[in-house]
Amino acid sequence: MTSQTLSRWEPENAAFWEKTGSRVAHRNLWISIPALMLAFCIWMLWSVVVVNLDRAGFQFSKNQMFWLTALPALSGATLRIFYSFLVPIFGGRRWTAISTASLLIPALGMGFALRDPTTSYPTLLVLALLCGLGGANFSSSMSNISFFFPKSKKGFATGLNAGVGNLGVSVVQFIVPLVISVGVFGALGGEPQHYTVDGAERSLWLQNAGFVWVPVILAASVAAWFGMNDIADARASFADQAVIFKRKHNWLMCWLYVGTFGSFIGFSAGFAMLTKTVFPDVNPMTYAFLGPLVGSLTRPVGGWVSDKVGGARVTLYTFICMIMAVLGVLVFIPAQGQAGNFSGFLAMFIVLFALTGVGNGSTFRMIPVIFLTERQREARGKGDQAQRQAVVDASKESAAVLGFSGAIGAYGGFFIPRSFGTSLELTGGASAALLCFIAFYLTCVGITWWFYARKNAAMPC
Fold first, then answer.
1. Measured between alpha carbons, how far is 363 from 378 in angstroms, rounded to an integer?
2. Is residue 459 one of the residues assigned to a domain?
3. Cα–Cα distance for residue pair 33/107, rounded to 1 Å
4. Which residues are within 8 A (CB) of 420 and not within 5 positions of it... i.e. 6 or more apart?
5. CATH code for the domain in which residue 135 is found
6. Is the pTM of this model over 0.85?
7. Could you tell me what percentage of the chain is helix, strand and coil, using 3-state DSSP and rounding each to the nearest 5?
8. Residue 327 is inside which H or E element, if any?
9. Cα separation of 439 and 449, whole Å?
10. Which of the ends of the chain has fewer CB neighbours closer than 10 A, N or C?
11. What is the pLDDT of residues 200-233, one digit of tens each?
């Protein structure tokens, strides 16, 4: 074993955890978090770039721009399916370093492409798809971190990794408007684009939206390679992990995670463009970062509260409140000749973002508990060795499910912006899309209550 490969890892052993495990686990967590944050920055780059394309000289329709915001989620969700299983095959340290370094491809690609407003729309579509590399990293990151922590701390650890990582959505929407307004890289960054506001000419360096992340990605990749660990016992082939496709609770949790994380990433991708469309007098980038910021900060809270009172209960009430928040959005959005109210619209969306964060934390706390309980039930009465093996099997299965459910959930990042775009195109408003979201959240309430939260539920968690 190399010094970076842990031949013994027993987080459920209290003595081992206190002496060695806690320190090593937290070191890996602190390196994982900024790497994941960068991944989210790259994944959500287009949510900021699209609202500035016209200023930089690009001329596309609103529907074309909604496609640019939706495609990173589509490719990211699809790649997550594969990334879900790669940590036990390659090792967490190796894969974190490699996957983080891969973010250089879309970052550099967008930097060069956005310097020239004659860059074709198909080229930008390809770059939007490549930004999905950032979204894919979430599944492998969450799978990796879940191996390091004991059951009692998984909710908070995975919530912290994902919650602070999710801050990348807010970070990119805050930083990019700043860096594209100045020539940060001088001659190396290329010439600015020019646009006119109220008769005054202004300059824009839209290419900085890609270039600004390059040095940070390089630093994070090096830190992951030299500072993280691989766990020998966490190794498993794809065939070993594929057993999750036979597990009913894998598919149920995927459905619920579409409702929580799918909503978070979908609203993050589509909110700025939706605001620009339905409230054209409002600058969406002044407010776009607020929702993802709140949703990211509440995710660790959701995991922590779920550790105390149970993930199912928190998830159930979260979905009920999400339905109420969407009803609130419907009250304030322009519809049927009414001008709408932006302040109420923004407030309801921030509440909705906060609830998605809580739900993200609570659903990810449910998964390890469900699979550990299920494997221990099967091993009951078969001796100590069977019980120990049940813990090992549950750890591998729950890690795979965390990654796979993250993959399925990420498709919400595609469907929500496309739902807004389709609703606006067919009906002239966004209300039809919002009503569809309410119907979906009702199914999530029913699943959570029946299988996990009601009295005498088959799998209380």
1. 23
2. no
3. 19
4. 66, 270, 273, 274, 277, 430, 433
5. 1.20.1250.20
6. no
7. 75, 5, 20
8. helix 311-332
9. 16
10. N
11. 888 889 999 999 999 999 999 999 999 999 988 7
